[in-house]
Specification:
Length: 116
């Protein structure tokens, strides 16, 4: 089926989401074992575009200070951005227990550090 879709829509117009496979880091969950942004970019960055992993949404975003959120976003962008192929995203929904000031810190840091 995908081959029919790609014939009708050139690859630059197609976003294909796959289920996890041994050779693809899907989804990017940066707080999980072996999912460090720099390692993922080095290992897969030439073959895939990353969507997500912009902030540690399990530890830093809900429990960190705005300064810690800002620094986490800066570090993750520094790892994922080089060479292109990165879309900033929180990965999952922002949970109800995340302080509003941390959401603003994430957004502001993505805006400040995310420009190509």
């Amino acid at each position: 089926m995908l081959s029919g879709v790609t014939k009708a829509n050139p690859p630059e117009d197609l976003c294909h989401h796959t289920l996890p496979a041994p050779t693809s880091p899907d989804p990017v969950q940066i707080s999980a074992k072996d999912m460090e942004p720099a390692r993922l970019k080095a290992e897969f960055g030439e073959r895939v575009a990353f969507w997500g992993g912009g902030v540690d949404s399990q530890h830093v975003l809900p429990r960190g200070t705005p300064a810690e959120v800002r620094e986490n976003v800066r570090q993750n962008l520094a790892a994922f951005k080089p060479g292109g192929g990165y879309v900033f995203n929180n990965v999952h929904n922002i949970q109800a227990d995340v302080p509003p000031e941390n959401i603003l810190a994430m957004y502001d840091a993505a805006w400040e550090f995310g420009e190509y």
